[in-house]
Amino acid sequence: ELCNGIVTTKSNLVNTAKKEGLITVQRLFLLDSAALKTGEQLLKNNQPDAVEILPGIAAPYFIEHIYKKLLCPVIAGGLISDKDEIEKLFQKGVLAVSTSIKELW
């Protein structure tokens, strides 16, 4: 197998990948309350295996307002700079984090 899944901002690719049996992660940029509402609708319609919230510091807000309705595992990505932040995100219900900072891997 060449690939097991995709991470994408494009909801149409989530649907296509699901039909192919791939693991799907829908990326959402939570810039404001309108993006939150749009993101909620995308997740309801597409039902990805997980959602990645960007920036990661917005993930607790997403969990508090949306997660309980959808029960989609949450990954936090972006603007995460130290281990304390990661631990706080885990305590607030984030399943995983994505970061380019090698010291945090």
Defining traits:
105 residues, 4 helices, Aldolase_TIM, 5 strands, alpha/beta, 22% strand, 5-stranded parallel β-sheet
Walk me through this protein's architecture.
The chain has helices spanning 11-19, 33-46, 59-70, 83-91, and strands at 5-8, 23-29, 50-54, 74-77, 96-98. By secondary structure, it is of the alpha/beta class. It has one domain: TIM Barrel, CATH 3.20.20. It has a 5-stranded parallel β-sheet with strand order 1-2-3-4-5. It is globular and about 40 Å long. It holds the Pfam family G3P_antiterm. This is Glycerol-3-phosphate responsive antiterminator GlpP.
Strand % is 15-25%
CATH topology: TIM Barrel
Write down the secondary-structure element order: EHEHEHEHE
- CATH architectural arrangement: Alpha-Beta Barrel
Count the E strands: 5
Continuous helix count: 4
- CATH class term: Alpha Beta
Q: Can you give the mean pLDDT? A: 94
Helix content: 40-55%
User: How big is the Rg?
Assistant: 14 Å
Distance between the termini: 25 Å
Runs in which pLDDT lies below 50 for 5 or more consecutive residues are none
Dominant shape = globular
Structural class: alpha/beta
Give the tally of structural domains: 1
Strand order of the largest sheet: 1-2-3-4-5
Sheet with most strands: 5 strands, parallel
**CATH H-tier superfamily:** Aldolase class I
